[in-house]
Automatic annotation (TrEMBL):
It comes from the Bacteria. GO terms for cellular component: cytosol. Binds 1 Fe(2+) ion. Fe cation binds at residues 97, 139, 143. InterPro entries: Formyl_trans_C (IPR005793), Formyl_transf_N (IPR002376), Formyl_transf_N_sf (IPR036477), Formyl_transferase-like_C_sf (IPR011034), GART_AS (IPR001555), Met-tRNA-FMT_N (IPR041711), Peptide_deformylase (IPR023635), Peptide_deformylase_sf (IPR036821). Residues 359-407 form the Formyl transferase C-terminal domain. GO terms for molecular function: metal ion binding; methionyl-tRNA formyltransferase activity; peptide deformylase activity. The gene is def. HAMAP family: Pep_deformylase. This is Peptide deformylase. Belongs to the polypeptide deformylase family. Belongs to the Fmt family.
Length: 439
């Protein structure tokens, strides 16, 4: 029978456990139910308190993973166990727990143990274990001593810096992860092109989680640096901020300023990686985590994730995708970086390419612009500056277009100055005009 797994703050998880006195039928039934529950819930270990029984029993089993080179853990039942030897050598590994769904924490433990106890029929057993086997049994033995995964959390003081939407999923993920204590959120209401942001989503998230907010147009101002210093961050996480960070701040946190950059660095360093990815017709892109240095986007790489592009992405869509990919990348690799298990490596300088801030003029096209460029610009500049063309001194924004199977550019939607958005067909009828571009 599948049993209900007790979760998070259920007091039974903290209750002292009793030794098993009788290896009777009742015990056999309980162990069978535990095995069924562990397998059904895809766990690799289960301790009796987790199903509401305060007794010294745990089980574990793992089929093995050839790809990740993790050997199998045989089905093991441990009754009244005692760990009699721990290796001096320790290892860090990410652990989860059926009682804390979704929580993954990097835990340092001795790599090898000797454990003694009884099997389900009361026969004395002694196991020397290393790797995952040792890890799981230490975790389950913790449960029998009322120690939980959350007790292994070493909270890291962090400061988040960002303005645009790219960092929003990261901020939210860090705010809800017990491994991080966000002491301060630094943001600005202005983008790198000095445009006021319509809605500061970073600020919205900071308010939602009641995080202290500091707004500044100059992150390097001494009073701002002083406030960040007072927050005492071990790490600063930065995404989509639009201001250059100087050495005073770069050198302040022990683990530096970790920057989330939406490209496969060293490709597309600089202010507009997402737009440039689309303008260049890249087939692949990604997100890179770097330790920020004095030279923009040139710092050593902590980790990187790549993904394929379909060729129909707009900047808004790509940014949204990269924002979520960046949050998972940070959550999955920051603990290893902070633990010293992930050593940042230098970028290949010779392969670096650079992007610049775009201006209104970058969105201007005319009949001499080739159709492929127009189509890419419409997607790249969908948020700003948008694609503009002039017809008899009338500014017309081209909002959407696509190529037909014969590779002719078909314009779908436009917005003449002072009017609302309309279909291109309506525009042609109303304005007796056509927009043509080079093949
Ligand atoms: Ni557990």
């Amino acid at each position: 029978m599948r049993l209900v797994i007790r979760k998070t703050d259920d007091p039974i998880l903290r209750q002292p456990t009793e030794e098993v006195a009788a290896f009777d039928m009742e015990l056999q039934k309980l162990i069978d139910d535990m095995i069924e529950t562990m397998r059904t819930d895809n766990g690799i270990g289960l301790a009796a308190p987790q199903i509401g029984v305060s007794k010294k029993i745990f089980i574990c089993e793992f089929a093995g993973d050839k790809e990740a080179e993790i050997p199998e853990v045989p089905l093991t039942v441990m009754v009244n166990p005692k760990i009699t030897h721990y290796s001096k050598e320790q290892r860090r590994m990410v652990e989860g727990c059926l009682s804390f769904p979704g929580l993954e924490i990097l835990v340092k433990r001795p790599s090898k143990i000797t454990i003694e106890g009884y099997d389900r029929y009361g026969k004395k057993i002694k196991i020397d274990a290393d790797g995952l086997y040792s890890r799981v049994m230490q975790h389950e033995n913790d449960h029998l001593n009322s120690t939980l995964l959350i007790d292994h959390i070493k909270e890291v003081n962090a400061v988040f810096i960002g303005t645009g939407s790219l960092g929003v999923p990261t901020l939210e993920a860090m705010a809800t992860d017990p491994q991080y204590k966000i002491k301060l959120v630094v943001t600005s209401d202005f983008t790198a092109t000095s445009r006021k942001v319509k809605l500061n989503l970073v600020e919205e998230i900071a308010k939602k989680y009641k995080l202290p907010i500091l707004k500044t147009k100059n992150i390097n101002a001494p009073d701002v640096i002083a406030k960040i210093k007072k927050a005492n961050p071990e790490v600063v996480v930065m995404a989509d901020f639009g201001q250059i960070i100087k050495s005073d701040l770069l050198n302040l946190p022990k683990y530096g300023v970790v920057n989330i950059h939406p490209s496969l660095l060293p490709r597309h360093r600089g202010a507009s990686p997402i737009q440039q990815t689309i303008l260049d017709g890249d087939k692949m892109t990604g997100v890179t985590l770097i330790v920020a240095g004095e030279k923009m986007d040139a710092g050593p790489i902590i980790s990187q994730v790549s993904f394929k592009l379909t060729g129909s992405e707009t900047s808004t869509i790509l940014k949204d995708y990269a924002a979520n990919a960046g949050a998972s990348l940070l959550l999955n690799s920051l603990p290893y970086y902070l633990a010293g298990d992930l050593k940042p490596f230098d970028q290949k300088e010779a392969k670096a390419t650079y992007t610049r801030l775009f201006k209104y003029e970058d969105g201007l096209v005319d009949s001499e612009t080739d159709a492929a460029t127009v189509e890419r610009k419409i997607r790249a500049f969908d948020d700003w500056p948008k694609v503009h063309t002039k017809i008899k001194n009338l500014d017309v924004q081209i909002l959407a277009a696509h190529f037909d199977p014969e590779h002719n550019l078909i314009i779908d939607r436009v917005k003449p100055a002072g009017k609302t958005e309309m279909t291109y067909a309506d525009f042609q009828r109303g304005y007796h005009s056509e927009l043509t571009f080079k093949a």
